[in-house]
Amino acid sequence: MIKVMKLGTFFWILLAMQLQAQQVQWASKVVSYSSDLGGKQFGIKQILGKPNAFPQCESSPTAWMPKSALSGAQVLEVAFEKEQTVQQIAIFENLNSGCVKVISVAGSDNKYKEVWRWTTDWRNQPFKRNLKTDRSYYFNRKRRKVEPAPPVDGFPGIHRVLLVEPVANVKSVRIKFDFSILPGQKQIDAIGISDSNIPIEAEINSISNNLIESAPELLVNNCYSFTCTEDGNQLFFTRDLEGKQVVYSSNFTKLSEVSQVNVCSANLSYNYLQGGNGNLFLHGGATYSASQGETGWNLLEYKNGNFQNLGKLRIAAYSNYGETADATITSDGKIVILAVESDLTQGGSDLYLARRKDDGTYTYLENLGKQLNTAADELAPFLCADNKTLLFASNGFSGYGGMDIFVSKRLDDTFLNWSEPKNLGNLVNSDANEVGAAITAKNQLLVNKQTEDGSAIFRLKLKNSDFEDK
């Protein structure tokens, strides 16, 4: 019995050492490719780095989508940061997997060696295109025709190749696809290599579940955007009332009692409060003139249970492609962080900041960069009371499906350098959409979740508000 225990202990120690010793690299450079859709969304550079669309496996602009989704050969060549021994190659196919035909590897000399080839099975017939070609579409345009793919979504998969003999000093990988094998659009999320036969997986970078001390508790149903006072006593949320949006207030101790808040927008379609840092709030939804630096936001101060309008939030050269925006503000009002889509976007809606000037207006928008922004959408920023912890919603990082809530920490006083975002985990996020969050001084985490009946606010108890597992 003692010998068995010793052998078992030795096995687990050996396995742990093997896991720690595994060297995994993700593609860091595109060397060559056959086609892509161009632009930042679905572009070829979306395959670089670790997976973003896995493991949720939904169609995502953070994955590469070839222009010729139904054609035969497509070739992709990627390089890695440094040479290493390779025993495993993993290709993360986000839509309609199973189209990899040939894999070759090369060192710094760029001399490729074939290491794997798909063997044709006479029982598997390639998908045949039967779409009619619209010749007028082609001849009336000065660009190549993009043939639409049949509406077949899903069927994700990780194509892992385990080499019989490891190959030393691998610097780049060349992959040949045959996208005529399967119908539907194709997306490639990431390409990884390893010196081990332990399967390469897509991992969600999340906080520890130990930081969540309670299950989600339903607070308010049928509501939209929300915020709260820093002390955690008062909750503000928006509901529809007879065709217009109305802001309501409720005390956390008497959530069944709600009252209308005396803030209104000339635009009946949008009327909501955000921010909630210190005494400062942002009232959104007003119509605005971008040529005059207007944003549709008003700055409010909350004192003695009432809101005082401090005037319009004006940002130089403000630009927003959408009808609405999300925003948060530092407790001193010097920095505003917004979620909008503009000319500087990384893809969809991005997080930007604007700095207050001496005259009370704000500088032009500055993109918060690729650490926080993806080719997908980043929404609903909420800056916590420490002015360092930022919560936001995104569907551009590995998650549990739809929009998830993430947290990032400010690293310096520029407000442009942030830590790698962490998912708030499966006790907070789900396969539905989590589209907003806030934290109170009582370590209460409030989350806006989309439900079958619309949208609702849930409350969870946090171990601490800095999201560190101490």
From TrEMBL:
Keywords: Signal. Pfam families: PAPPA (PF25900), PD40 (PF07676). Residues 23-102 form the Pappalysin-1 SD scarf domain. InterPro entries: PAPPA_SD_C (IPR058897), WD40 (IPR011659). Residues 1-21 form the signal peptide. This is Pappalysin-1 SD scarf domain-containing protein. It comes from Flavobacterium aurantiibacter.
